[in-house]
Each structure stands twice: as C-alpha cells, then as structure tokens.
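Hi P.,

Sorry for the delay on this. The queue was packed all week, but I finally got your sequence through. Input first:
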Amino acid sequence: MRMIADVPLGAFLSGGIDSSAVVASMARQSARPVITTSVGFAERTHSELDHARVVAKALGSEHHELLVKPDAIADLPRLVWHLDQPFADSSALPTYYVSRATRSGSR
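Then the structure:
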C-alpha cells in the first residue's frame, strides 16, 4: 500500500540495518529500481557513504550521493524554523542535509 504513488519512490539510505531493510523491501516490491539518496562527510569517521554504496549496489538501486560540508551555525536557524518545536536529536542536521539533497536533486 505504501508503494503506490504518482511519482518515483525513493528512500534515504545510510547503509545501516533500518534503512537497508526498508530499501530491500521496497526493491522486492518495485518493478523499477528504488531511488536512494545518501549524504556523506569529508571526515570518514562520520561518513556512511561506503556502507550505503555497498547496499545500493547489492539491491540495484538508483543511488545518489552528496558530500556535504556541515555549517551548523548557518543552517541551524532554518532547521529550527522547520522543526517548529524543541528538538534534541543529533540526527536533525544530517537528516536536514539528506532531505535537502533529495529535494534539490543534487547528486
């Protein structure tokens, strides 16, 4: 039911268990490759691009990657405006970057 849409479906892919399982399920149910988007960071200790790339290849997704240079000071005011409430999750900034990359089509 969640795979019915008027536009191509995609998912954020980190290469971790959760996103990999979601994309695997989508790939089994889709007649076309699932679109996946991942963001990475120059600091390899903080980047999950290698893991996401392995999963995307194994599942045959149409994979897009973007290397970002975080600028929390500049991005936080906009992020806080979008969240519209107190939010203390450290994943907010990376989620913002992958969402922005997906929406803009930056690959």
